[in-house]
Write a structure and sequence with these properties.
The strands form three sheets. This protein has a five-stranded parallel beta sheet with strand order 2-1-3-4-5, with helices on both faces. By secondary structure, the chain is of the alpha/beta class. The protein has eight helices and twelve strands.
Length: 231
C-alpha cells in the first residue's frame, strides 16, 4: 500500500518543500521535511523513511554530497533528486552519486507522484505493516489521518494529525521534540508540547495522568497502543 509509506522531502526552499509535502499527503503518504542536509540527517536518526526527495543545490552540504555519503555508509534508501540543472552531464552526475531517479525543476506534481510510486514499486520497497492503531476506545487510521472514538470521528487539526501519524509510525518508541517538529516550519520544537497537551485532552480520560500519550523522561514522547492493524 503506497499510502502508508513515509517520505522525507529535503529542499532549502520552504515554499517548494511545503507544496510537495501537501501534495504527497493529499495522496496518502506520510511526509516529513528538512531544509538542509544536516536536518535530514537528524530526521533519519530517529525515523525510518521509505524514500527521499532531495534537492541538489542546497547551502552547505549539497544533495549530491549527502547521497554519496549515504551510499558510502551502506544506506540503500531510494533517492529521487530534484534540480534546476537540466544538462545531461548534471543528470549523470546526480545518478553517479547513487541516486535512483532525477527530476528537473520546474516539474508537474503529478509526475513527481508517479516517479515516487514507480521507484517504490521497482525497488521493491515494502510498505509499513500497520495502517491503523488502536488504543482504548480509539482507532487512528495512519494513512487518512482519521481518529475515531467508538466509531465517531474526532476532529483533529492538521498539526495534530501529523503529530499522531509520526507517533503511530513509531508506536511504543519515544521521539524527541526535534523529531516531532517540522524543520523550517513556523512551529518550533517547543510548540510540540502544546500539540501534545491538546491531543491528550482528546484521547486521555485523565490528561494529567496520561495512559497512551506518555512523556518519557529525557527522551520525549511516546504513543502506547493496544493493537497495530495491518492493511
Amino acid at each position: 500500500m503506497d499510502e502508508a509509506r513515509h517520505i522525507l522531502v529535503v529542499d532549502d526552499d520552504r515554499r517548494i518543500r511545503e507544496l510537495i509535502k501537501s501534495y504527497l499527503m493529499e495522496n496518502g503518504f506520510l511526509v516529513s521535511v528538512a531544509g538542509t542536509a544536516a536536518e535530514a540527517r537528524e530526521r533519519m536518526r530517529g525515523l525510518t523513511f521509505d524514500l527521499i526527495v532531495l534537492d541538489i543545490m542546497m547551502p552547505g552540504e549539497t544533495g549530491l554530497t549527502l547521497t554519496k555519503s549515504l551510499r558510502s555508509n551502506g544506506h540503500d534508501i531510494p533517492v529521487l533528486m530534484l534540480s534546476a540543472l537540466a544538462d545531461t552531464d548534471d543528470r549523470i552526475a546526480g545518478l553517479a552519486t547513487g541516486s535512483d531517479d532525477y527530476l528537473v525543476k520546474p516539474f508537474e506534481p503529478r509526475e513527481l507522484l508517479l516517479r515516487i510510486k514507480n521507484l517504490l514499486r521497482r525497488l521493491g520497497v515494502s510498505a509499513p505493516a500497520k495502517t491503523d492503531v488502536r488504543f482504548g476506545g480509539f482507532q487512528f487510521n495512519v494513512s487518512r489521518g482519521e481518529l475515531r472514538k467508538n466509531g465517531d470521528l474526532v476532529r483533529l487539526t492538521s498539526g495534530e494529525k501529523e503529530l499522531l501519524r509520526i507517533l503511530s509510525h513509531k508506536a511504543g518508541s519515544p521521539l524527541s521534540r526535534l523529531e516531532l517538529s517540522q524543520p523550517g516550519s513556523e512551529e518550533s520544537a517547543r510548540s510540540v508540547d502544546v500539540q501534545i497537551n491538546r491531543l491528550r485532552q482528546k484521547i486521555e480520560s485523565d490528561p494529567a495522568n496520561p495512559v497512551y500519550l506518555q512523556t518519557v523522561r529525557g527522551a520525549g514522547y511516546a504513543l502506547y497502543v493496544d493493537e497495530e492493524v495491518s492493511g
